[in-house]
C-alpha cells in the first residue's frame, strides 16, 4: 500500500507531526452492503500505530456516487495523535 497517494491518503502521513490527519475513501460494494475496501482503512490505522500514533478521532461523510455502477463513496477522516 502506497500511503503517499494523495487521492487516498493525506500527504501529511509522511511527516513527523504531533497530530496527523488522514482521509480514506471507502467504496460501497456494488452487490450487498458494506465497504469493499475496509482493509485500506485498517492498514492506514495500523501503519500510523507502527509510527507511534494512536487514533484520536474519526468522522465520516458521504462522498456521493461515482456513476451508475460505481457505488457510493464515504470519506473517512481520521486524526491521529503522537503517543509520547
TrEMBL record:
Pfam families the record matches: DUF4177 (PF13783)
InterPro entries linked: YjzH-like (IPR025234)
Name of the protein this chain belongs to: DUF4177 domain-containing protein
Organism: Agathobaculum butyriciproducens
Amino acid at each position: 500500500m502506497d500511503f503517499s497517494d494523495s487521492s487516498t491518503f493525506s500527504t501529511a502521513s509522511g511527516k513527523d507531526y504531533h497530530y496527523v490527519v488522514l482521509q480514506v475513501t471507502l467504496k460501497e460494494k456494488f452487490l450487498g452492503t458494506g465497504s469493499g475496501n475496509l482493509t485500506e482503512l485498517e492498514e492506514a490505522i495500523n501503519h500510523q500505530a507502527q509510527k507511534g500514533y494512536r487514533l484520536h478521532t474519526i468522522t465520516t461523510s458521504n462522498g456521493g456516487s461515482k456513476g451508475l455502477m460505481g457505488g457510493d463513496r464515504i470519506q473517512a477522516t481520521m486524526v491521529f495523535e503522537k503517543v509520547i
